[in-house]
Amino acid sequence: MGDLSNPFGLAVAQLGPISIDDSRTAVVKRLTALMIEAHSRGSKFVVFPELALTTFFPRYWMTEEEAVERFFERSMPSIETRRLFELGAELKIGFYLGYAELTPDGRRFNTSILTDENAKIVGRYRKIHLPGHAHHIPKVPFQHLEKKFFEVGNEGFNVWDTQGVRIGMCICNDRRWAETYRVMALQSAELVVLGYNTPSTNIHWKEPSHLRMFHHLLSLQSNAYQNGLWVAAAAKCGYEDGFHMIGGSAIVSPTGEIVAQAQGEGDELIFANIDLAIGVPLRENMFNFAKHRRTEHYGLIIERTGAGEPLGKAPV
Ligand code: CDV
What we know:
By secondary structure, the protein is α/β, with parallel strands linked by helices.
């Protein structure tokens, strides 16, 4: 363990703000510049953010039709994103990319795709934990309308064996949920990749602002450790159309330690030669699921969605 005899070059491409008026073509130029830098540093895979082609539009009240017209992709690759796929194939770099998906039958999902080193799409994930609300809230500085614009993902949390690594995907709010990672760890995931847009203001209750970054890193670190896998997370961040979102893009080891973290709130590439073997002793010992999990005592996890009454009884 830890000798890096077989490293996997992993890059996370953090994006600074995308203005509401920026074209997809301008954004793809930024993505390709980051991919070229990833290549120069020896990367085999690069993680881009959630909804990486546009501003974080769920902050704006508008009709679903208007959102579709301005912010959704009808195909992937699209005319504007084709260059990113061509470059991925040229440089032999696989990638994770988040975008708003409009399906041929008109359904809307917050989606990410996984490509291999030939830019072939080998995996798709549709966001399951959608935060926010579907109605207009007048008294907040911005909306969070993911529940209005997107359906709950219908394809589960999956893992793909690609480029010699078992990679799972999730998106933003999913990273805060233990179930997300455990379902992927039960498919022997070695690396979980995700993108996020996390506003630094909590519109639902008053919360000290430093907790936003703390809870973000806590979620990545604890879930990496408890499942013995790597986690790589890419932010879109900074003041986007005047609304601030946290940075903190990070690569986290199965030990729970951060091995790379973005320093600023702009376009920034972070990189690590990761050792996939670091997770093995954790998965074979402390978190050896086959040996130590006690599913006969976990029934409530699928029987109950919301918290209910305590089940404790006095012992007889
Ligand atoms: N895009 C997100 O899912 N954002 C949420 C915010 C609303 C808390 C997040 O979990 O970061």
